[in-house]
Amino acid sequence: MAVAAPAHANYHDHIHPEPTNFVQKYIFSLDHKIIGIQYFITTFIFYCIAGLLAEVIRVQLLHPTGGFVSNEVYNQVYSVHGSAMVWLVIIPMLTGGFGNFVMPLMIGARDVAFPWLNMASFWMFPVAGALLFSSFLVGAPEAGWTEYPPISLQGPPGTSLWCMAIFLVGVSSTLTGINFLVTIMKMRAPGMTLTRMPLFVWAQLATAMLSMVATTALAGALLALFLERTFGVPFYDPSKGGSPLLWQHMFWFYSHPAVYIMILPAFGIVSEILPTFTRKPLFGYKAVAFSSVGIALVGFMVWAHHMFTSGMVPWLTLPFMILTFFVAVPTGVKVLAWIATLWGGRIRFTAAMLFSLGLIATFTLGGITGVFLAAVPADLHEHGTYFVVAHFHYVLFGGSVFGIFAGMYFWWPKMTGKLMSERLAVAHFWATFIGFNLTFFPMHWLGLMGMPRRVPIYDQQFQSLNVLASIGSFILALSTLLFFANVAYSLTKGKKASSDPWGARTLEWMISSPPPYYNFKKIPSVLALPYDFGEPLPYVGGDLIRPNPQSKFAGE
Amino acid sequence: MAVGAIVHGTPSDAHDEPVDSLYAETRDMRLLGFVLFLISDVVLFSAFIFAYLYLRNSVPQWPPLGADGKQLPRFDTLFAAVNSVVLFGSGATMHFALESWKHGAKKAFNAWMASTIILGSLFLAGQAYEYIHAKVTWAGSTIGASFFTLTGMHGFHVLVGVIYLIVLMGQANSGVYTKLKHFGLTAGTLYWHFVDVIWVALFTLFYLI
């Protein structure tokens, strides 16, 4: 690169040398920034496919007798929709995408600990996507994203492809977790102690611990299901001494922590955006940081709250109910800390900020219905109804996906060196926010009225609310187009971004946009937390670009 | 190591430090990464051990009844005990192999490595013998399902280990490692001990209780 000054001509010897040909640079890249962007591109493609599957569901449910697709296809559609959104979109985008692009920059590193492993983890992931979506060719899985046996044992051949795809995503996720843990523990810039790490890095640390430990448990469950489907090895089939409940225990031992894998990085994104756009330090830094780890730890002990109606030993329900209530404590700490950060701040309603505020509102609603569902007496009534669907979409869309869009608007200038249109972005937020609530709020009522989930036809009385939800979902789908329009606009006509367009203070904003191949020519030393906006920058050494005092937001 | 040194130094020292010592892939990064990989592997085994104990506790007697209504036989503890001694013995020889390398005793290293590889292969042969003469089948009962899946996964790990050790031995003899820099050998030793520890659990679960 032309930037290479002779005095530091050897810096690129100390990461993998900069590639010169297209394939090494953009396809099989070792650079965490390129790999992060590869994750974004792949996950957004999968997001569109899985989103279209959701629209198939909503079109089918426009009418009580359905009729848009057959019952079998309907089952396949919601099963693949759920699996794809969880494993091919939200988890890889938040860990592989944001984690890869942002985390090493934030800790002042030149790359992750094991760049080769990082590349391998990425390339497993499109293969998994191809496996999962191609299952439609042979009959996709029909038993929902949870694939409970014995239905999944009798399911079409695509169920085995589903096993392979999720297994592969699991391997990729485990390796990424190991990679990120080593990176965060061993590669922080001098002076960046654990309690000086940006909160997004804390979130990635907690997430990496979860994905490293929990995902292999899921791999075991999947392997057993695959063996039973292929060779008839009895684990889950009750007619051969197996137990369907065993799958539920093994599945949820992973899949409940997976809920936190999907939400903690989004929390981390919000914790970066709020201080930046209120010009205030985050309220209760340590409380927010440790609550991520707290959520991760408690998250391992609550899995059986998904199984209250499964016929599990009754005395187990009480401890699992109480433990689940405990998750609300660290989560509540975060929400209160965010609100306290807003208090008295000079708030700028950029798109990233709007999505963060939207997340706080909608996620809190989803969290509260989570507490309802954790209460055994309420759950016995609500389990398996649309109330559950409403709950987890408020958490996963209103939480994770809002966090994803907040992060996209926040870090887009850093990734591409171009600004997006704020106007279009704000329009995107309102369309998404309205479309989202219109789609999923009525589902609370539908659930409480008794409409079961995963049905292709339903009782007449539920029609008006279902039509409302479907209209909302069409708005939601169209709102995504505004985002892609903004991407196209920014890449072609967008204004050039400065190194720090938002006046943020974490390390990634102290280098040019997009960052050079080696990230930091000299590694800076860190003296304090990055959130004290009134104070001088807490970095010494390095060759950081200081914020331009003339810029709109600097020095506020 | 250099990262730690600099954290305690004055911050202005930082950019005088040559960059490579800060950002090379250091031994402790590899060690942490490898240990984390082993932990995640332990979880994989734990998942199947949980499945085994769950299925075992869901029937009144263990081993469960076969298709003919008669209780299935227990596994041959004596044979497995002898085979376990072979595997644990290979753990000891592996330890001596690494120690010899650290002391620069190349000849002893090769002898200990070769005996580790032979003992590992013997264990695999023993397991194959046990599979052939087993009175339960993989798909026939829950005890067979757990037994063949868990010991099969373990056997696969031993097989990978044997191949890994052969590669390490070749690398060591072609000058890849030095007396001080030999992370590959350390990792190989860790892995081999890990395989031993897993076998302690499996032996207890299937043969003793």
Could you explain how this protein is built, in words?
- The complex is a heterodimer of chains A (556) and B (209).
- Chain A is mostly helical and 556 residues long.
- Chain A contains 15 helices and two strands.
- Chain A has helices at residues 22-27, 32-60, 71-106, 115-138, 151-154, 158-186, 199-231, 244-278, 285-298, 317-342, 351-374, 376-382, 386-416, 422-449, 463-493, and strands spanning 525-526, 539-540.
- In chain A, helix 11 runs parallel beside helix 14.
- Chain A starts with 21 loop residues before the first helix and ends in a 16-residue tail after the last strand.
- Mean pLDDT of chain A is 91; it is low at 1-13.
- Chain B is mostly helical and 209 residues long.
- Chain B has a single domain, classed as Cytochrome c oxidase, subunit III, four-helix bundle (Four Helix Bundle (Hemerythrin (Met), subunit A), Up-down Bundle), CATH 1.20.120.80.
- Chain B has helices at 2-8, 19-23, 27-57, 77-102, 106-132, 142-173, 183-208.
- The longest helix of chain B is centred in the last third of the chain and has 32 residues, at 142-173.
- Chains A and B meet through helix 6, helix 7 and helix 8 of A and helix 1, helix 2, helix 3 and helix 6 of B.
Strand tally of chain A is: 2
Question: Helical percent range of chain A?
Answer: 55-70%
Strand order of the largest sheet of chain A: 1-2
What is the CA-CA span between the terminal residues of chain A? 35 Å
Instruction: Write the CATH fold name of chain A.
Output: Cytochrome C Oxidase, Chain A
How far do the termini of chain B sit from each other? 46 Å
Instruction: Kindly identify the CATH topology of chain B.
Output: Four Helix Bundle (Hemerythrin (Met), subunit A)
Assigned CATH superfamily of chain A: Cytochrome c oxidase-like, subunit I domain
Biggest interface goes to: A-B, 55 and 45 residues
Q: Which CATH class of chain B?
A: Mainly Alpha
Shape of chain A: globular
Please compute the radius of gyration of chain A using only Cα atoms. Answer: 23 Å
